[in-house]
C-alpha cells in the first residue's frame, strides 16, 4: 500500500507507539487524525505533530457514534484505520487478584473497542480504492506472560479476530487487514510497569509503516519473530523461557 496522501485514523495516538506512528505517517505526507481520552495530552500531541485531534474513548458507545459521524462528514476519504489504543495491568492470577474486573477493563479497550469501531467504519473504508485496517496485537498474543495474564488474553482474542476479519474481507473488498506484534517497546505505559529496556517507539513505528507498505499481513517488531519461531518449534519450552523468572 502506498502510504502517501492518505487519510489515516490512529486511536490512542497521543503517546507511545501511536504518537510515533503518527509522526512517521505525517512526515510521509498523509493527513493523520489521532484520538485519545485525555483531552489535554491529546491537544498537546496534536500541536506537536501538526495533526487533527478528536477526543475519544473507544469503550464508549456514544463516542464511537460521534467519531464515526465526524469522520464521515469531515474525512470521508479515510482509508487507513489503526486500532492502537490499549490498556494493560501487571499482576498475577490467584486468590483475590481481582482478575475479572481487570480483564473486563482490558477487553473493553483492547478487544471489544476495536471490533465495534472497525465494523462502524467498514462502509467508509469499502468506498476507497485501497484501504487498510491495522490492529495492534502483541507478542503475548502468541503466548501469555504470567505478569500480564488477562492483557495476554485480550490480545490473543484480537489476534484470532484479525485473522477471521482478514479472510472475510479478502473475498469481496480491497481492504487489507494487518496485525502488528510488538515485543517490549519503551513507552510511558511500559515504564510505569517497571519495564524500561524496550525498543524505542520511533523504531517500532518505522517497522510498522514499512510492514503496511509491504502488504505484510503480520508485522513483527523487535524480538517477536524469534519468539514466534521458538513457539512453533517447541511451545512448552518457548513459553517457559518467555516467562523465566516470573513464575
Automatic annotation (TrEMBL):
Any one GO MF annotation of this record: oxidoreductase activity
GO cellular-component term (any): membrane
Pfam families: adh_short (PF00106)
Entry annotated with the keyword Protein biosynthesis: no
SUPFAM superfamilies registered for this protein in UniProt: NAD(P)-binding Rossmann-fold domains
InterPro entries linked to this entry: NAD(P)-bd_dom_sf, SDR_fam
Domain of life: Bacteria
Keyword Nucleotidyltransferase among record annotations: no
Keywords, alphabetical: Oxidoreductase
Family assignment from sequence similarity: Belongs to the short-chain dehydrogenases/reductases (SDR) family.
Protein name in UniProt: Putative oxidoreductase
Species this protein is from: Mucilaginibacter auburnensis
Amino acid at each position: 500500500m502506498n502510504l502517501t496522501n492518505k487519510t489515516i485514523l490512529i486511536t490512542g495516538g497521543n503517546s507511545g507507539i501511536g504518537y510515533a506512528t503518527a509522526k512517521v505517517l505525517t512526515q510521509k505526507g498523509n493527513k493523520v487524525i489521532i484520538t485519545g481520552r485525555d483531552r489535554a495530552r491529546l491537544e498537546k500531541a496534536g500541536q506537536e505533530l501538526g495533526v487533527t485531534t478528536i477526543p475519544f474513548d473507544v469503550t464508549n458507545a456514544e463516542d464511537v457514534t460521534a467519531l464515526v459521524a465526524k469522520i464521515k462528514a469531515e474525512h470521508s476519504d479515510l482509508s487507513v484505520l489503526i486500532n492502537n489504543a490499549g490498556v494493560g495491568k501487571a499482576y498475577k492470577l490467584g486468590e483475590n487478584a481481582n482478575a475479572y474486573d481487570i480483564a473486563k477493563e482490558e477487553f473493553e479497550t483492547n478487544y471489544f473497542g476495536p471490533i465495534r469501531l472497525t465494523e462502524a467504519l467498514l462502509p467508509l473504508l469499502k468506498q476507497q480504492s485501497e484501504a487498510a485496517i491495522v490492529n495492534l496485537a502483541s507478542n503475548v498474543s502468541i503466548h501469555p506472560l504470567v505478569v500480564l495474564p488477562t492483557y495476554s488474553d485480550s490480545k490473543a482474542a484480537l489476534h484470532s479476530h484479525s485473522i477471521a476479519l482478514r479472510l472475510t474481507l479478502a473475498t469481496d473488498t480491497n481492504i487489507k487487514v494487518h496485525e502488528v506484534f510488538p515485543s517490549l517497546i519503551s513507552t510511558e505505559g511500559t515504564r510505569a510497569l517497571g519495564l524500561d529496556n524496550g525498543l524505542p517507539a520511533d523504531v517500532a513505528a518505522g517497522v510498522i509503516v514499512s510492514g503496511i507498505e509491504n502488504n505484510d499481513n503480520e508485522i513483527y517488531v523487535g524480538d517477536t519473530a524469534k519468539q514466534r519461531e521458538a513457539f512453533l518449534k517447541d511451545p512448552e519450552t518457548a513459553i517457559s523461557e518467555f516467562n523465566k523468572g516470573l513464575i
